[in-house]
Amino acid sequence: xxxxxxxxxxxTLAGGSALVAALPLAGATAAxxxxxxxLPDDPFALGVASxxxxxxxxxxxxxxxxxxxxLDGLGGMPRLAVPVxxxxxxxxxxxxxxxxxxxxxxxxxxxxxxxxxxxxxxDREYWYRFRAAGYVSATxxxxxxxxxxxxxxxxxxxxxxxxNYFEGHFTALRHLADEDLDVVVHLGDYIYEISEPSEIxxxxxxxxxxxxxxxxxxxxxxxxxxxDLRAAHAAAPWIVTMDDHEVDNxxxxxxxxxxxxxxxxxxxxxxxxxxxxEHLPLRRSALPDRAGIALHRRFDYGDLARFHVLxxxxxxxxxxxxxxxxxxxxxxxxxxxxxxxxxxxxxxxxEGLRDSGAVWxxxxxxxxxxxxDAAAGPERDFGMDTWDGYxxxxxxxxxxxxxxxxxxxxxxxxxxxxxxxxDLKADFDDPESVTVxxxxxxxxxxxxxxxxxxxxxxxxWLAENPHTRFHNGQRGYGRxxxxxxxxxxDYRIVPxxxxxxxxxxxxASLYVAAGQPGIAQVES
Length: 524
What we know:
Distance between the termini: 25 Å
Oligomer: single chain
Number of strands: 22
């Protein structure tokens, strides 16, 4: 990034509440305010976060929860609104406080706080913290987006997904906190609703799959209590969207993953949406209501990159040919009116691509977009939960990319617990077909355990799909460095997650040249 203090210096400043408590909020006293009830412990156990970066503002987040694993979902808080002081400064020691105020943490939203700060300078670092009931939070670092249309020379960000608590330690997130990033993009599966016995002593709480708002709050409380996840949130602003495990594996629109419909699934989905909002740095515009939760939106980084954040769950048609042995070249996946995004979101995306003007148009996308035949030989086997199950929708999108003359189209994807990269083709069955763009799938943080560099599944994918360029089956995240001339994705991996302390390395770097769709070079 552009001449900021070192990341390690920031992490040292933000590393513990004892140090932060030695830096009292301006104008505050050490004693708790009279209108605040006494709490059983530090209410900032879930840390701090920021997100939704705009040129003039960000969202600051925390949730008061001195007992985040309390089974009633109240986090050890009374059923009262609690005032929370907040500060945002231009330096990590808060000598130059530029914004401050008081937010109300209410029981209706799990005592979460979402402060929408505006009036900030574009493309600037800021530091923030909270105070409540005599306690002071850790310090977080954030950054605003560059001014609209400014000729930005470079951008560095990370993207990630799939952090299953019971399958591994979040070591990769600790390393992500050490990266020098403008922003972090999370593509979904922030929590997992499934509960299986953990082989490494990280069993899910509450026991069993969550069903109520209290259940989901406890599950998020367990995840957000993880020190590595807290560090990653405190280090940079996040842009987030959800996939399926935040609600129910493979859910689609109004249908649960096992085909459930009706009031029970709707109530569970509503509880999941509210808990998601309560635990992530989202704007009030995303506050769930009877219509759902608003997650598809755009973020511009000057004229260099436009991020189109997709919602591939709420508005999709249900999966077809879904079940063992039913997905072998299923004809129903080709039905012309099937949609992954829904008609309104498809129009929104088309308009955003048409009006972009950015050097790079980037889709923050949940599930694999490129065609992926997983069967060896002449038989064809496609995943019905991916864009292969919604072929007409993918074709419409690619026609829109070409029709709107989008020269540099990049899709970022999570979900499949492996690193995979390839070219997006107008016709995947014709290797000589026009290349529309490039897709970079990043592996999971922990899901599927330690993994291995190259497994049988990856070998089949590379052999059966000539548009694929790289595969790796280990854990980690993607780091992207973008300039006006070139896109580079570094696949950052850890050798194990079954125990803590893994080192990190770059398994491969892949390049896209501006004006030349598709992957130009793979260095591994």
